[in-house]
Amino acid sequence: MSLSLRAVDEACLTLSRPLPAFDRAQAIQYKLIEMAELDPRTQGLLEGFVREVRDLYGDDLLAVVLYGSAVGPEWISGVSDLNLLVVLREVGPPQLAKAGRWMRRWQKSRLSPLFLDPEYIRSSLDSFPIEFLEMQEQHRLLWGEEDPLARLEVPRENLRLQCEQELKGKWLQLRRAYLEAAGDTRQLRRVLIGSLSPFAAVLSTLLRLKGFPIPPREFLEILAQVEAAFGLELDAFRQAYQLKLGLRSFGRAELNGLFSRYLLEVRQLARAADHLFRGEG
């Protein structure tokens, strides 16, 4: 994720206002970082969540990390979820049960916690490389002595393989959806619009693998850079995005044609991912 992270001074953490239930010494010790760009209500939700998981887990709690849209330009207050990585020494049924009675209230406040332990993170970089890379590139440490994402190293072959798997899987899913739609214009439209968002992470990862360390966040900019990097034309993607924004409309025949071109472009992207790094010694 492209947003650069605010540097944290190891010696002194500057806070713009006092934090409830934490004195300044605690904030310095644990690097509790205030989200100054978030609205006061959201900031209060995050501070409350940190207090609650500290009370629940005590010394078993290693870190609380905010990741995703709340750390980037896509954040929409009251609409976007607050994705939170909660790192515990060990995560099993007993640890999850402790949070069970809080989950409904957290979810009502759009707080979405993911409970992981260090061993799972270390052993899953080959299984979910894109997900962990995106978390690493767009996150803020809210609480903890050490950032659990800062030093992760994701092998690029794992990223390439997941890109290929995701693209080929989406191609098969889109073909199946096309068959099931049986020419229903409204259903085809829903499938096209609903399929776009998941492509952003895959396309951004393809750019990273091509040497773009900080891909753009805006979808049309991502498309333009992928076209230039791989020598492709992704006009169907662009038109599907315009359809999603309500800037274009298509009749039945036009929509079927757009879907056919969209499938072809997904197949081309899968081939591009498949051929990455070939010929390298």
Put simply, the count of helices is 10
Helix and strand content put the structural class at: alpha+beta
CATH class of the largest domain: Alpha Beta
How many distinct domains?
2
Shape: globular
pLDDT averaged over residues: 84
Strand order of the largest sheet: 3-2-1-4
Which architecture of the largest domain per CATH?
A: 2-Layer Sandwich
In what range is the share of β-strand residues? 5-15%
Corresponding CATH superfamily of the largest domain: Beta Polymerase, domain 2
Q: How many DSSP E strands?
A: 4
Would you identify the regions where 5 or more consecutive residues have pLDDT less than 50? Answer: 1-36
CATH topology grouping of the largest domain: Beta Polymerase, domain 2
Order of helices and strands: HHEEHEHHEHHHHH
N-end to C-end Cα span: 29 Å
Please bin the fraction of helical residues: 40-55%
Query: From the alpha-carbon coordinates, what is the Rg to the nearest angstrom?
Result: 21 Å
Biggest sheet record: 4 strands, mixed
